[in-house]
Design goal:
Blueprint lengths: L1 H5 L3 E3 L2 E4 L2 E3 L3 E2 H5 L8 E4 L9 E5 L2 E4 L4 E2 L3 H7 L5 E5 L2 E6 L4 H8 L13 E2 L11 E2 L23 E3 L2 E4 L3 H5 L7 E6 L2 E10 L3 E8 L12 E4 L3 E5 L5 E3 L11
Parallel strand pairs: 4-8, 11-13
Antiparallel strand pairs: 1-6, 2-3, 2-5, 6-7, 7-14, 8-13, 9-10, 10-14, 11-12, 15-16, 15-20, 16-17, 17-19, 18-19
């Protein structure tokens, strides 16, 4: 988790619940589920506390879980819940679509946003899209992309200790709606492209948001002048048209880095 904590283009959002109990990332689904013939209820819900909130890496406005949400889980369990090909979820009042990584091309997109991105998921198999390379029904051990044909062995009910769930989250609530009711003086984190900036909202108009006491550590070079422009005296100007997602709770930015 030390490498995760060093990444600037990340955001904490939501928690995973299994059978009504919140789970810290990398929880063992098989241990919780017990009997292979019983499918527990898996939910992605509002942000909770520093030990349970999910860390996401930002890429092209999408979010990839920086570590598995659950391990020792099966393809069939996730398929039953709709989490493989797209399922609407509501987190902190905002609407999202949660799904698996589609293919190797999308996986390499996420790998381009930070030198640690491939290694953040830990060991095991990553359930992903229809192509069996790094992300789909295939082996992604220690961040080393693999290749080959679709492996149907992972399309099974049995929960494998090598299979993990590391999904993609896409915001579907319009940005104007996400910004509704946010007043100056409120802490916000705004993301788009491959970047995130945060700070206290000082001013908002039809085109821009001005933040002060801000952090632009998560502003990637390619997004400077597009998503945001750092200003003197700890301020940053954010282009409203480039925003994809909005967070308003600073609690989820202070999760322990252990």
């Amino acid at each position: 988790k030390g490498e995760i904590a060093k990444m600037a283009n990340k955001i904490y959002l939501g928690t995973v619940w299994v059978n009504g109990e919140k789970q810290a990332p990398v929880a063992s689904y098989a241990r919780i589920a017990g009997d292979d013939n019983v499918v527990p209820i898996i939910e992605v819900k509002d942000s909770e506390d520093n030990d349970h909130n999910i860390l996401w890496v930002i890429c092209h406005g999408k979010l990839l879980a920086a570590e598995p949400l659950l391990v020792s889980i099966s393809y069939d369990d996730l398929l039953l819940h709709g989490y493989l090909f797209g399922q609407p979820v509501t987190i902190d009042g905002q609407e999202f679509n949660i799904r698996m990584v589609r293919d190797f091309e999308e996986w390499t997109e996420f790998g381009s946003v930070g030198e640690s991105a491939y290694a953040l998921h830990g060991t095991g198999t990553l359930i992903g899209g229809p192509v069996d390379t790094t992300v789909s029904l295939c082996s992604v051990a220690n961040g080393a992309p693999g290749g080959g044909e679709i492996n149907s062995n992972f399309k099974m009910a049995r929960r494998s200790g090598t299979v993990c769930w590391r999904p993609v989250l896409e915001p579907t609530t319009p940005v104007e709606q996400q910004l509704e009711g946010i007043k100056p003086g409120r802490w916000v984190a705004l993301w788009g492209g491959d970047s995130v900036v945060s700070g206290i909202l000082k001013e908002i108009n039809n085109y821009d948001l001005i933040l002060h006491h801000s952090s632009a550590d998560g502003l990637e070079e390619q997004d400077k002048g597009i998503l945001a422009v750092p200003l003197p005296n700890g301020r940053v100007c954010v282009d409203k048209a480039s925003i994809v997602g909005v967070r308003t709770n600073p609690q989820d930015q202070r999760r322990r880095a252990t």
